[in-house]
Structures are given as C-alpha cells and as structure tokens.
Amino acid sequence: MAEPGATILAADGVTLRFGGVRALTDVSFEVKAGEVFSIIGPNGAGKTSMVNCISGRYRPTSGRIRFDGADITRMPTRRRAAIGIGRTFQNLALFGHMTVLDNIMVGRHHLMRHGFLSGMAYWFGGAQREEIAHRREVEEIIDFLEIQHVRKAPAGTLSYGLRKRVELARAIALRPKLILLDEPMAGMNLEEKEDMARYILDLNEEWGMTVLMIEHDMGVVMDISHRVMVLDFGKKIAEGTPEAVLADPHVRRAYLGEADEVVSEPEEALAP
C-alpha cells in the first residue's frame, strides 16, 4: 500500500475514443495517497469518462493507468474492486427493493471468502461467523453516515439525499484505498451538501481513504480538495492547488465562462 504522499494512482497519456469522437486526449496526472483530488470542468469535458477508465468500465484507447504500483489498464472491473478501488455513480445505482442494510452488504461481496458450499452448512461452518463480522463493519458505516433510522427501509423509498448516503455507504463497505466519487453533491440542498462534505473529509482524514472526486459545486471543491485538475473537451488544461487553479485564466474561460480581456487601443492610435 502506498505511503502517505506517495503516488497511489497515475494516468499516463490516457486517450479514449468512441468512433470518431475523442472523449479524452492524452490526459496524464497523479493522485497522492491520503489526498482529496478533484476533477472539474464543463459538462462533456470528459470527467466521468476518466473515472470510468479508472474503475474499469471503459478501457482507454491508448495510454496507461497504474494503481498502487500495478498496471491496471486492462484489469477487469471486479478485480479493481478487489484490490481497493471503490466508486459511486452520478446516477444512483441502488437496489430499490432491498433494504439499506442489504444494499450496503452488497459492497462487502468482494471481501467474502465463503462460497455456495460453505453457505449450505451455514449454521455449522465459518460462513455464519463471517457474516456476523461483515455486519459489524456495515453497522459501523451506518453509524458513521447517520442512517441508523432507515437501516431496514427499502432503499427505493428514501429521499434523494439519503439514497446518496446509502450509495456512499456501499462504496465505503469495500474499505477501498481509493474511492471515486462521481458528483456526490448533485441534486442536494445546502444542508445535505454540508453533511456530505463532512463525511468525505472524515473518510479522508479519519478513515485514511484517498478520494478522487468529480464535483460541479466550486465552493465544495475549493473547501475540501488538496489538488484539482481541470478538463475541457477531453484535454487537461490545468492542475494544482484549488487557489492556483481558480486563478488560472484558461480555467476561468473554460469553466467559469469568462471572456478574454479586451485591451482597447489608445484614442490617438485610432485617429485617422
């Protein structure tokens, strides 16, 4: 496992094409262990495409992705989860008919060692003890995210903000080294955003998880990120501390929609 400050994730020249369309073009960056690293940019800039390449949902057309020193460019999604990469989705992907508790238990699936045969002998083997241990972990996560009151409720009956918490809980249940958060604040009110920001900071500072986050709320990005990368039309246009990135004129044009400054000519120079 990467030591704090060492590189835990590295993208090297990642390009992603869909037919004749380039979603990403030669994107390179590194994420350090123990930091909150945010990717920002306008809609269609390639942010989710980059996260999908890291999680294994997409395979880059060219370039490499390394995690914890290993090349994972062609590694299956399931294997990436097993080595410590967890994620949430921009569009909620919960099982609406299942309880909150059961949804979170799904996140422990990759950590379970007992299979079908040991499950048949549940009451006589280690499967029961294993399930009890996993449930303790899940209950700790439920307490952390303050969703005890809905633990037995079907996920589909919850408010949007609570469902976002449950999805975060399921990603945390994997106990990942790196957690990928795709717009965790989207659709939330101010109070819900403040709560989610606090949970993310606690995951990073107290639970020791490295966070890579896509987020449109610039206030949140500036408040909780250690470093920020900006994409525009699939290309990296800036990377650095939040303050440096926000001050970058290319970022202000691309992301904030500010026009180039126009320097007017002196009046005498315009005279005939």
Automatic annotation (TrEMBL):
Superkingdom of source: Bacteria
Domain named ABC transporter: residues: 9-258
One Pfam entry name: BCA_ABC_TP_C
An annotated Gene Ontology molecular function: ATP binding
Stored InterPro entries: AAA+_ATPase, ABC_AA/LPS_Transport, ABC_transporter-like_ATP-bd, BCA_ABC_TP_C, P-loop_NTPase
Keyword set, alphabetical order: ATP-binding, Nucleotide-binding, Transport
Gene Ontology cellular-component terms listed: plasma membrane
PROSITE patterns from the UniProt entry: ABC_TRANSPORTER_2
Name assigned to this protein: Amino acid/amide ABC transporter ATP-binding protein 1, HAAT family
Species whose genome carries this gene: Belnapia rosea
